[in-house]
Specification:
By secondary structure, the chain is of the alpha/beta class. It is built from 7 helices and 12 strands. The longest helix has 17 residues, at 114-130.
Amino acid sequence: MTKIILCGCGGKMGAAITAIADGRDDCRIVAGVDVNTAVSRGYQVYQRISDVTEKADVVIDFSHPSALDSILAYAVENNVPAVLCTTGYSEAQISQIDEASKKIALFHSGNMSLGVNLLIALSRKAAQVLGGSFDVEIVEKHHNQKIDAPSGTALMIAKAISEELPYESRYEYDRHSVRRKRERSEIGIHSVRGGSIVGEHEVIFAGHDEVVTISHSAQSKGVFAAGAVNAAVFMKGRPAGLYDMNDLIAQS
C-alpha cells in the first residue's frame, strides 16, 4: 500500500487524482495540502506541507511552482520521494530539482499522459528522418484558466526534437514583431487558450509539397491523474535520482 500526500488537492486535478486513488487498492491518499483547507476530499487537508502529521511514502504535487521550495524541503527532511507534476517551473527551479534529486528520489514530467509521451517519442523519430529539410511548428491548446504558456508539454516536445536536429535550433514564440522570412533553425511554438479545452498538442513537420502532422488530444483530466498515481506507486522506495515517464514506461 502506497500512502500519498497530495499537494494541490483542492483543484480540478486534485479531485481527479483523489477519484483515481479511491478506486485502487494499492494506494491511498492520507493527507492533502491546499490553500483552501475547507475542501472536502475524505482526508485531512493542511495549508502547508510542513504541517502534515500523517506518515506517507510519496508526495504528489499538482499545485503551483511557488510551492516547490516547501515540497522539496519536506521531501528531503523526511526522505520521501516526490512526483512533481506542476508545470511552469523556471530554469532556476529546474536546477533546484536536479540538485535535490541527488539526495532523494524525484519524478518530474511536464505531462503525465502515456499518449503524450508516445507523441514525444514519435516526434523525436520524425525529427531524425525529416528534421534536416522540414520546418517544425508546435501548436498547443488549453483551457482559458491555464496560466503558463507555452505548456510544459510543448517545451518537452521541442526539446526532444531539438536533440535530433542536425543544426542548433531556437524557439520562436512570436513572429509579429519581426519582418523576415522563417529561418531553418526555428521551432515555432504557439499557444491557444480558450473554453474548456483539456489539452491538445500538434507537431507539424512542413516540407516541400508535403506535411506530416502528429497530434494528441486529451479528453479528460483523468489521463493525467492516472499517470500521477501510477508514478507515485512506482516511486515508493526508489533510491535517490531523477525519474520521468520513460522510467515508468520501461517498467510497465
